[in-house]
Design brief:
Elements: E1 7-11, H1 17-27, H2 35-43, E2 53-58, E3 61-71, E4 74-82, H3 91-105, E5 110-113, E6 125-126, H4 130-138, E7 142-153, H5 162-169, E8 173-177, H6 183-188, H7 193-201, E9 210-215, E10 218-225, E11 232-238, H8 247-261, E12 266-269, H9 275-282, E13 285-296
Parallel strand pairs: 4-5, 11-12
Antiparallel strand pairs: 1-2, 2-3, 3-4, 5-13, 6-13, 7-12, 7-13, 8-9, 9-10, 10-11
The structure holds coenzyme A.
């Protein structure tokens, strides 16, 4: 077996994406990312920085890869994998150490593992990734928060919204799909900057994968799907003054109906907030759980 001296770190780019996707497929028992999803998450990230894509080569073959992104003072690993046959040789440590150094040189004060919204692949480290969890804790990462996904069985969910839409219309609330002409409305809608980016990404889907509620000219609620991967739901939000009228449940159902018509048997609700809401309205069940790791970077 080759020694550690045979490992060379180098950059990688869009021409290496297929090899990185194949590496993740082999490295992770639980993650499969379509190429388009990886391409969008890595190369179309608004903070994309080519210098934060690092590959480890062993005797000319790809043995490991990491991609990072810096959002202000926060650095993130976006994806990270070492081939099974090259584990426990220090490759993961070298990749992560190099990423931490480069993030620090660019002004990041912390490094987080995944949860790099709004262009993220995973809301954290799947708690079943024992090797990853062991390695991160060994390197001084602390688990700060947790997140979970829920799953909805689309074959059984009741998704009709026609009656509820008529009832909301009597209150002056119009429900419809987001349209390209809504860009100005979206720009002033009350929502977090990250969610605005995610909703804006739904303009690229055909049909646009956001449904909205309008009161007058204002977008007062939205629900989005298919921006963080196929058959993924989220984010969604209803203006606090209009909660309790059933608007959120209705928009959620419209999104799930899109996914069912596209042929998906199930949907993942990503990085869930109100678990009871999804369980009540569409029978969602808690599925994958993620730990959100973070480490302070030494000042450079
Ligand atoms: C996490 C991962 C990148 C680590 O790669 P690696 O090259 O094996 O890591 P290192 O050799 O640098 O390990 C460093 C330390 O982490 C700890 N560690 C790593 N794997 C471990 C394991 N299986 N059990 C216990 N500790 C472990 C050890 O302390 C190790 O040091 P040691 O070997 O001197 O004891 C690799 O296990 C991996 O690719 N996992 C799957 C990643 C994945 O699922 N990615 C998908 C999302 S993008």
């Amino acid at each position: 077996m080759p020694e550690r001296a045979d490992i060379v770190l180098d950059g990688w780019g869009s021409d290496g994406l297929g090899a990185v996707a194949a590496l993740i497929d082999r490295a992770s028992p639980v993650d499969r990312f379509p190429l388009d999803q990886l391409r969008e998450a890595v190369f179309e990230d608004m903070d994309f920085d080519r210098a934060l894509l690092i590959a480890a080569w062993a005797n000319g073959a790809l043995a490991g890869a990491i991609a990072g992104v810096r959002r202000g003072e926060r650095g993130h690993a976006k994806l990270f994998a070492v081939a099974p046959e090259w584990r426990r040789r220090g490759i993961g440590s070298r990749l992560l150490g190099e990423l931490e150094d480069r993030l620090g040189q660019r002004g990041a004060r912390t490094c987080r593992i995944f949860h790099d919204a709004p262009y993220y692949l995973r809301p954290g480290v799947d708690f079943r990734l024992t090797d990853m969890v062991s390695m991160l804790e060994r390197r001084g990462y602390e688990q700060k928060h947790a997140a979970c996904n829920m799953v909805v069985d689309l074959t059984h969910a009741r998704l009709d919204t026609s009656e509820a839409e008529v009832s909301l219309a009597t209150r002056g609330i119009v429900i419809r799909r987001l349209e390209h002409g809504d860009r100005d409305r979206l720009a002033v809608a009350a929502m977090s900057p990250n969610w605005r980016v995610e909703v804006a990404r739904s303009f690229r889907r055909a049909p646009i994968s956001t449904h909205i509620a309008l009161q007058g000219d204002a977008i007062v609620a939205f629900a989005t799907h298919s921006v963080s991967g196929p058959a993924q739901f989220g984010p969604m939000q209803t203006d606090p003054s209009l909660r309790g009228l059933g608007i959120g449940a209705l928009l959620l159902r419209r999104c799930l109906a899109d996914l069912r018509s596209a042929g998906f048997p199930r949907c993942d609700i990503q990085w869930v907030g109100p678990k009871g809401f999804y369980a009540d309205h569409v029978g969602a069940r808690i599925d994958r759980c993620f730990w959100q790791y973070e480490k302070a970077l030494a000042p450079s």
